[in-house]
Fold this protein.
Amino acid sequence: MVSGAAKFSIQGLSLHYGVLTALRDLNLEIAAHEIFTVIGPANSGKSSFLSALNRLADRIPNFRQNGRILLDGLDVRRDIEVEILRRRVGIVFALPLPLPISIRDNLTYGLRMQGVRDRQRLDAAVERSLREAFLWDEVKDRLRAPAMNLSGGQQQRLCLARILAGEPEVLMLDEPTSGLDPISTAKIEETLLELKARYTILLVTNNVAQAARVGDRTAFFLMGEMVEVDETKRIFTTPRDPRTSDYITGKFG
Amino acid sequence: MNPRTAQKIAFTLLFGATALVVLPVLVILGIIVAKGVSAISGEFLFSMPRAGMTAGGILPAILGTLYLVGGAVLFAVPLGVLAAVYLVEYARDTRLSRLIKLAIVNLAGVPSVVYGLFGLGIFVTFFGFGASILAGSLTLGIMILPVIITSTREALESVPRSFRVVSLSLGASRWQTIRHSVLPHALPGILTGTILGLGRAAGETAPILFTVAAFYLPRLPQSVFDQTMALPYHLYVISTQVPGIAENTRYGTALVLLALVLLLNLAAIVLRSRFRRKKKW
């Protein structure tokens, strides 16, 4: 089972939008410093799951949650301020979404919102995060340039760096390479494997091979239910549920 | 019908309609410029009226209009922008909030003379400001509030949703998100709406008729509780109420008012196009 302390402990989690149920009775532990991948077809509840973890789902009218999500043993809805939660649990979205400001301002956004004004500290965060996302060499000479001028792959790595700048504990990535070319995808995957030592990583992907390449453990979601969770190797070699094997062998998707 | 013929008829109709719209504007502009330009001079723009408005300049009316417009903007822009931010960013989509939005849109269609009466009742009489720049500015401000709220709402709604989600996901509070990731990008639209409101405030006669406008006051106002002359009302007075005013004085006054309003609208257009070129999403 899970080795080490559980970062996230999800207990009886159900997510509803009005009468629609996006996720049903999920029980799951995510360990610190693992890459946990979630696979499954569209509308299986993967993204809803992530948006409950950092409470972005709260924005959606008629959103309801049953069950509990614990981060280091603290209930994310009760015991942690939402702004603090989102600093600790960062997310990269499917599309690269830089803000229409400079590269540097994108990277320092989170820290500035925390009230950090110290230039040296901001500069240090910019360089460290860009290096961690393997983007430093490409943009170090044009940190004042608009982030929108970067290529799609660079933009997505910038979004990753932007989260790393805030020194989160958990990185969530929601199909981060779905709009990228194979080379950019490979760079992101490489980065994730490097980052594993310092962060807990949750990767939602509709690319089964990607889960196999980078995951430590993998969960298969289908229509709001977690069908199976296991070590990634096991899921891809000896899945217990026939639906899992049908999905990973491409019989549906 | 032969599609080629249909095409020709359609084109003629469409072009004709457009020409019919543009023509009167050009004619009006032409007449005002032709008859009024001879009155424009340094003395006309920068001196007091003399001899029962038959001689001298229109400085108090020009300044009065600028004061009134300034006061209206000072009052209406902060209030309108804040209300729009609340409606777009905070208010839940309930029956009440939809009713409020509908009411604001409809306020834009209320005849300006009704605002004038409202201003008379509330500001002049009830609050006891008397006929004053304060009462007139507030009345004009209330009149342009719907314009400012509506254009600010549109500007806020045109800021991509993703900016808000990204900002929140980076740990910003809702207010920080609005302050740093929504308002800056909505600013051009807000500015445009403001200037359009300004233009409207500058040109209206009815709202200032009962609340501030002086018939003939050949001195400059000393405080916000003073009455003042204003261009639109002055134009009405010298055109219909006082005999023996030279024709070019009347048209010259109209020209000044028109130029003021057109200048404001032009500024709005230039601003909008400059920001649009800078827009990156």
